[in-house]
């Protein structure tokens, strides 16, 4: 591999990047980390003293997934803060930057310095496998919050993208009664062809009261206060849409409904699998 003798800097992130850094040392000459939680447990990997020192001479930079949560800072361990602006200003000329959902401001700054950006979430294989990890974790989280089995229960999945499809498929495998709520008629027809029930978002008002497990993937307020008033008090809501999610969590709290905005599921439930997925995506991009 042409890149095997290059220096890699792994910056910020969660357990996924910790495990990825450990895997990278088997394929690259030099692997360095900065602002990575748990980095002290890594053997034969250098820890950078500062952002500037870490970026010096780095041919490949691996950032977190997501790259940022607030649009201001890079996602890092709790006691370290890295402003996106500081990161952009410190970038050296040339190289490759990996990360998940890399902000357009970072992409543009990197382009000015001849740095190629490779977004994990825009890699088809990575995105598909990430959806599987997310689906498994979302269902696991729902089960831990509910006093009931998933088997034979009414389960509602809002949206019909990658993650929604993966959730629905696994719920069906657990013998649940799955309904898809989607805006597009084509999505509802596809859901029906897969053996699911299907309703429009406008029909939620009449049907949501019977649902025991609700999974939202739609990144806008679809589960508003009026709908929450009709949700069963012993139901569980898992919202995996981008922060702040699509659920009125205050309304859920008032009614005593178990509801959780569950982000970064792969990093919490299957970090090793996620690290392997990202490694494969990196290697394919570097070939």
Task: Please describe what this structure looks like.
- The structure is a single chain.
- This protein is α/β, with parallel strands linked by helices and 287 residues long.
- The protein has two domains: 7-122, 3-Layer(aba) Sandwich (Rossmann fold), CATH 3.40.50.720; 127-267, NAD(P)-binding Rossmann-like Domain (Rossmann fold, 3-Layer(aba) Sandwich).
- It is built from twelve helices and twelve strands.
- The strands form two sheets. A six-stranded parallel sheet has the order 3-2-1-4-5-6. Strands 9-8-7-10-11-12 form a six-stranded parallel sheet, sandwiched between helices.
- α10 links the parallel β11 and β12 (258-261).
- The longest helix has 22 residues, at 124-145.
Would you tell me which CATH topology of the largest domain applies? Rossmann fold
The CATH architecture classification of the largest domain is: 3-Layer(aba) Sandwich
**Rg, nearest Å:** 21 Å
Q: In total, how many domains does the architecture comprise?
A: 2
Q: Count the strands?
A: 12
Lateral arrangement of strands in the main beta sheet? 3-2-1-4-5-6
As a percent range, the share of helical residues equals 25-40%
Total number of helical segments?
12
Give start-end ranges of low-pLDDT stretches: none
Q: What top-tier CATH class of the largest domain fits best?
A: Alpha Beta
Q: What is the global morphology?
A: elongated
Would you list the SSEs in sequence order as H and E?
A: EHEEHEHEHEHEHEHEHEHEHEHH
Structural class determined from secondary elements: alpha/beta
């Amino acid at each position: 591999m042409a890149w095997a003798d290059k220096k890699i800097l792994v910056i910020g992130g969660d357990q996924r990047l910790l495990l990825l850094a450990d895997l990278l040392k088997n394929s690259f000459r030099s692997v360095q980390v900065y602002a990575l939680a748990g980095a002290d447990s890594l053997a034969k990997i250098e820890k950078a003293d500062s952002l500037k020192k870490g970026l010096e001479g780095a041919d490949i930079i691996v950032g977190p997934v997501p790259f940022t949560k607030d649009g201001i800072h890079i996602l890092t361990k709790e006691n370290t803060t890295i402003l996106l602006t500081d990161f952009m200003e410190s970038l050296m000329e040339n190289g490759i930057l990996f990360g998940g959902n890399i902000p357009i401001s970072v992409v543009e700054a990197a382009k000015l310095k001849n740095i190629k950006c490779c977004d994990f979430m825009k890699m088809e294989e990575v995105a598909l496998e990430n959806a599987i990890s997310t689906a498994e974790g979302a269902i696991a989280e729902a089960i831990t919050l509910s006093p009931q089995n998933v088997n034979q229960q009414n389960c509602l999945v809002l949206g019909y993208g990658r993650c929604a499809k993966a959730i629905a498929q696994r719920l069906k495998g657990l013998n649940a009664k799955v309904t898809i709520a989607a805006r597009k008629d084509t999505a509802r027809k596809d859901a029906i062809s897969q053996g699911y029930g299907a309703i429009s978002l406008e029909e939620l008002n009449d049907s949501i009261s019977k649902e025991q497990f609700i999974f939202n993937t739609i990144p806008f307020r679809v589960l508003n206060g009026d709908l929450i008033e009709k949700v069963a008090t012993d139901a569980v809501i898992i919202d995996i849409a981008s922060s702040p999610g699509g659920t009125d969590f205050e309304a859920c709290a008032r009614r005593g409904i178990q509801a959780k905005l569950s982000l970064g599921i792969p990093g919490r439930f299957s970090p090793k699998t996620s690290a392997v997925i990202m490694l494969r995506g990196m290697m394919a991009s570097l070939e």
